[in-house]
Amino acid sequence: MDKTPKQKVKEVFGKNADKYVTSDSHAKGDDLSLLVEWLQPENTWTVLDIATGGGHVTKTLAPHAGTVFSTDLTEEMLENTAKHLRDSFDNIHYVVADAEALPFLKETFDAAICRIAPHHFPNPERFIAEMSRVLKKGGRFVLIDNVAPADSELAQFMNTTEKLRDDSHSRCLSKEEWKMLLEENGMVERKSADRRKTFDYPSWVERTTESKEQIERVSRHLLNSNEKTADYFSIEVQDGKVQTFTIDEWMALYEKAD
Question: What are the Methyltransferase type domain coordinates in residue numbering (predicted)?
Fold first, then answer.
């Protein structure tokens, strides 16, 4: 029997939980410091971290908020994150939760954040609807994720690359698709930034692949890209091997309309 998208997510992240705690692109992104600057959290706030992964958003916001609910679909991932953070903070609650069916009452949270995770969600429209439901009126939401270029050829190449490397990948939406979903759910844009993110290819591809053959498939896909694609994603090759490549990321601050 084929696995569902969410079963694939649990399997991939359960096996690679510790890699997401130590991953440079997850742990050291400058978006984490921007997160505090943009949100301006208060020490009375109840904050929701959706799909926390390695816990980097939770760790960043816990010193500034009253309470943080750190959630993830994958229990092994959440247990690993809790192990790393429990000795440092006493205001974090860890909850196994599906981003598309959040186990909280409406208008519970002052702020919600989802960082580098939505491309794994099979139904992003449900995720945005759920986030908006549990957010208080006037509450703030920050979305940070890899986004597909508006060009359909480049978007297909990016999503194919991600899927070849990680079977739990669903789809990177475009910035325009995210804006439409957010607006449809009563969210108003306050600030956003287009960002570029460069991956060290060898460590990136090894994080979720399961065999040398799988790594080779991803590498061939990148190496066989046409000039337009190689230029857009800044694919750097040395001695016939991919060294780095660069993708689009979008960071946006929204507020729930009163």
Answer: 48-143
Domains of the chain: 5-198+248-256 (3.40.50.150)
Q: Which of 146, 85, 138 is nearest to 112 (CA)?
A: 138
pTM of the model: 0.90
CA distance linking residue 65 with residue 45, whole number of Å: 5
The answer to whether 110 and 139 are in contact (CB under 8 A) is yes
CA 150, 195, 181, 78 torsion-angle sign: positive
Strand pairing of 236-238 and 109-115? Answer: unpaired
Q: What is the pLDDT of residues 89-112, one digit of tens each?
A: 999 999 999 999 999 999 999 999
What pairing do the DSSP bridges indicate for beta strands 241-256 and 187-200? antiparallel
Q: Rounded CA gap, 254 and 43, in Å? A: 20
Residue linked to tokens 């060898």: 202
Residue 165 CA from chain centroid, whole number: 16
> Residue 196 forms beta bridges with which residues?
248
Which tokens sit at 170?
């669903």
Q: Which residues pair with 250 in a beta bridge?
A: 145, 194
Closest CA to 31 of 172, 193, 173, 207: 193
Residues 144, 178 contacting (CB under 8 angstroms):
no
